[in-house]
Amino acid sequence: MNFPFKRSKTATPPSPTVEPIPDANPSPTIDPAEPCSDDYEALVQELTQPTPATPTASAKQLLRQWVRRHPWIFLPLLGIFPAIAWGLDQHRPPSPKTPMVSNSAALPSPAGLPSSNVAVASPTGSPNSPKPTASPSPTPVDLSKLTPEQKEMNRRAKALFEATNAPVDAYIEMHVGIAKGNAIVIASSTNGIVSNDKGEKIATMTAGEVYTAQFDGQGISLGSSKLPLGAFITPEPGGLLYVNNRAYRGKLLLAVHQGQLQAVNYVNMRQYLYSVVASEVSPSWSPEALKAQAVAARSYAMTYYFKPAHPLYHLGNDEYFQVYSGIEKEDDRTNQAVDMTSGEYVSYKGGIVESLYAASDDIVAEAFAGKGMSQLGALNLAEQGYKYVQILGSYYPGTKVAKIAKDY
User: Fold this and answer.
1) pLDDT per residue as tens digits for the range 321-364
2) What 3-state class would DSSP assign to 44?
3) From CA 53, how far away is CA 396, in angstroms rounded?
4) What is the phi-psi region of residue 39: left when phi exceeds 0, alpha when psi lies from -120 to 50, beta otherwise?
5) Residues 193/234, Cβ–Cβ less than 8 Å
6) Contact assessment for residue 327 and residue 275, using Cβ atoms and an 8 Å cutoff
7) Separation between Cα atoms, residue 305 and residue 299, nearest integer Å
8) Which value, in Å, is the radius of gyration of the alpha carbons in the chain?
């Protein structure tokens, strides 16, 4: 780049008198007639002499000089370049080998969990670090080698586990019609809570006090309390309900159907069968006969569980269905037969069999056209060494014993 000027000497010449410049010629014309001083003549001589050629600077050097004189031009670029770099970084895909780690503080351990003091080895491992050893598999316990004290401890532990882990029968709620009429006598061994169908408390029964429930054409009266057309009575935990002087577990529904007061016992299948099996056969019978009766009674109840016999309940409590007498007939032997067959029922091609039964073969032949189990016949087979599954198979041919499974 050629610049249009050169630096002059430091001496300042006297002001010359010159003619006006008629054009834009940068080289002034000096009148030779005008007197000049020596210094001025020297200056004029210097100006009129041709300028010696100077070496041309390279483009890179000239650009550096120009940038040094105009540095402010690059100030806006200082903000543009970081913005461009940030935008490129946002669109850059993360490296598959480097996990994205947050800079936030590490999360605390869950409350209540002790922190681990075990050091975790690096994936590469140290040549001096010990090799992990496999933990030995547990060895099955031979129950025959247990001492009498150990066997007793095992029995108690098993009983405790079974008591805290309720059988499947306890999860099935049966609705059993136990009384009907114009008036029903009711009591509770503990305080009883009276509630409506929404679960809202509307009255309280005092423990041990006898109440008479009646239908007056508009609602149900219980003592001095007025109840809606449907109300529940629930004893406090551990309590029993008394209906017409018979004790029952569970809770009670008082409702009106076709102008008649009805009492319905809500009780789980396990407690229901405790009563049925002991009411239908003698607890002194062979255990296999009691098991056969328990399975048949459960299967029969389940058919009505899915196809109720009445709008208010699944089935009744008399001989037309199965005899259900509350806790009056319960016995440990029949209770054990119910628990040992918990959830088992008579099945045919995946369905539930309405396992009819009666006292003798003659009654079965007369009432059910020979299709059902004779209770006395089952006892006879059990005494001959038949297992309860074999007894059921002989009276309900083509069927098998299935089991309800708990869905955890």
Assistant:
1) 999 999 999 999 999 999 999 999 999 999 999 999 999 999 99
2) helix
3) 129
4) alpha
5) yes
6) yes
7) 10
8) 53
CB atoms < 10 A from the CB of 139, how many? 6
How far apart CA 393 and CA 381 sit, in angstroms, is 12
CA–CA distance from 252 to each of 233, 234, 279 (Å)?
5, 7, 21
Gap between the Cα atoms of 270 and 65, Å rounded: 103
Q: Which of 227, 219, 225, 180 is nearest to 206 (CA)?
A: 225
| pTM, full prediction | 0.61
Tokens at 283, concatenated: 């607890």
- Among 74-88, 164-178, 348-362, where is mean pLDDT lowest? 74-88
Angle ∠(313,317,321) on CA atoms, nearest 5: 90
Residues 226-241: pLDDT tens digits? 999 999 999 999 999 9
β-pairing verdict for 351-352 and 201-205? unpaired
Query: How many whole angstroms separate alpha carbon 201 and alpha carbon 222?
Result: 14
DSSP string, 48-64: HSPPPP-PPPPHHHHHH
Q: Which residue is listed with tokens 């491992």? A: 125
Q: What mean pLDDT comes out for the span 157-183?
A: 84
Q: Where would I find the beta strands (DSSP E) of 210-349? A: 211-215, 220-222, 225-227, 230-235, 241-243, 246-248, 251-257, 260-268, 315-316, 344-348
Per-residue model confidence (pLDDT) at position 144: 83
pLDDT beyond 90 at 385: yes
Cα–Cα distance measured from residue 295 to residue 281, given in angstroms and rounded to the nearest whole number? 13
Closest CA to 121 of 131, 135, 107: 131
Q: Cβ distance 242 to 187 under 8 Å?
A: yes
| CA–centroid distance for 115 within its chain | 26
Report yes or no: 348 and 398 within 8 Å, Cβ to Cβ.
yes
The Cα–Cα gap between 313 and 253 comes to 10
User: What whole-number distance in Å separates Cα of residue 35 and Cα of residue 29?
Assistant: 14
**What span, in angstroms and rounded, lies between the C-alpha atoms of 259 and 215?**
8
| Confidence (pLDDT) at 18 | 43
